[in-house]
Amino acid sequence: MISSHSKLPGIGTNIFSVMSTLAEEHQAINLSQGFPDYACDPKLIELVNDAMKDGHNQYANMAGIPLLRNLVADKVNRTHHAAYDPDQEVTITAGGTQAIFTAIASCINPGDEVIIFEPAYDCYAPTVRMFGGLVKPYGMAFTDNKIDWDMVKKLFSANTKMIILNSPHNPTGSILQEDDIQALIKLIKDTDVLILSDEVYEHLVYDGKKHLSVAAYPELRERSFIIASFGKILHTTGWKVGYCIAPEFLMKEFRKIHQFNVFSVNTPMQVAIANYLQNESVYQNVTAFFQEKRDLFRSLLSNTRFELLPCYGSYFQCVSYKVISDEGDAVFATRLIKEFGVAAIPLSAFYTRSTDCQVLRFCFAKKQETLENAVNRLIKL
Ligand code: GLN
């Protein structure tokens, strides 16, 4: 028997794959994994076809096609008044998760400590550990997700290497406010702590609120990897195209890993996205589009016994089911699929210690009829 040492003992298949598979098996309405169930703009598909027909079928530039990197740099400059050099400071990635992995891989060494805010997106902690890093979780207040920055300070040590931020936040839909940013600036002042800022839901912010990117704050930007995703803007999560922006000294390290891991991202998609996003109204439209979905889903859910938690951003709505059941969230989510035909994500999957607050996450990036059908089933609970 050949023995092999697991790099990630205790880690199984991630919750999104598990719940989506279970949903398929039981033909449940899948509000678990975050992806749209409607088509993207046919024009975008035409642009991919055009790119293929025009011969854009070979390796792209390792860092991404210049047209797309320029577009990213222009957009960040216009939105956040932050100048990034498209040649040295922007890299197109195979989606957000790969960008997060590569950023962590490029700077976490054994013994480095990384602060994350829980509930936290599921890939942060395992990736940190894969490179010998130690995860220091900060538990956000339940249910308003406020961060007490004095408590975060207590997690700091001489070994603190990185803080991972995520705003708009998956799964809670909370967003960082100006006072959070100012507290963070104070906290990292006179330290060498790096920031990984996962901003993949940057355009999904509601009620006229504003997404605050760390790019807009020079004290943060100078030490930050910022991660973004085209899938969330274009309704094409399966295309797996995103990007990372970072100051040159960090991006240099990022690309050392990227070139041996991904090398380059598929060319026709990059060409199509760059051409499609020349039309800037896409960004504004996506905000209004998801605001409508969030409002509809919340109003439908208000007819159920679930308690709606706040949602200011992302395409996720969290609910407490305390008044419905005292089961654990994984058990309840499984029963919801099998007996009621609706799939959700149990929030314990977003905690290193599987903390169970009896909360589920639903994704509302779905057709109106999907949301209506799902809630018609949830009403029975
Ligand atoms: N980001 C998506 C979610 O939170 C899932 C991505 C994935 O399945 N890896 O549901």
- Based on CA atoms alone, the radius of gyration comes out at 21 Å
Shape: globular
List the helices and strands in order.
HEHHEHEHEHEHEHEHEHHHEEHEEEH
Which superfamily, in CATH terms, is the homologous superfamily of the largest domain?
Answer: Type I PLP-dependent aspartate aminotransferase-like (Major domain)
The largest sheet is: 7 strands, mixed
Brief overview, please?
This protein is α/β, with parallel strands linked by helices and 381 residues long. 40% of the residues lie in helices and 15% in strands.
Molecular structure report:
This protein is of the alpha/beta class. It has two domains: 15-34 and 284-378, Aspartate Aminotransferase, domain 1, CATH 3.90.1150; 57-278, Aspartate Aminotransferase, domain 2 (3-Layer(aba) Sandwich). It is built from 14 helices and 13 strands. The protein has helices spanning 15-25, 42-53, 66-80, 96-107, 124-130, 149-154, 178-188, 218-221, 230-234, 248-261, 267-276, 281-301, 329-340, 368-378; strands at residues 29-30, 90-93, 113-118, 134-139, 160-166, 194-198, 224-229, 242-245, 307-308, 316-320, 342-343, 345-346, 359-363. Strands 2-8-7-6-5-3-4 form a seven-stranded mixed beta sheet, sandwiched between helices. It has a four-stranded antiparallel beta sheet with strand order 9-10-13-12. α2 crosses α11 and α4 (96-107) crosses α10. The longest helix has 21 residues, at 281-301. It is globular. The relative contact order is 0.17. The model has no long low-confidence stretch (mean pLDDT 97). Bound molecules: glutamine. Glutamine binds at residues 16, 33-34, 97, 170.
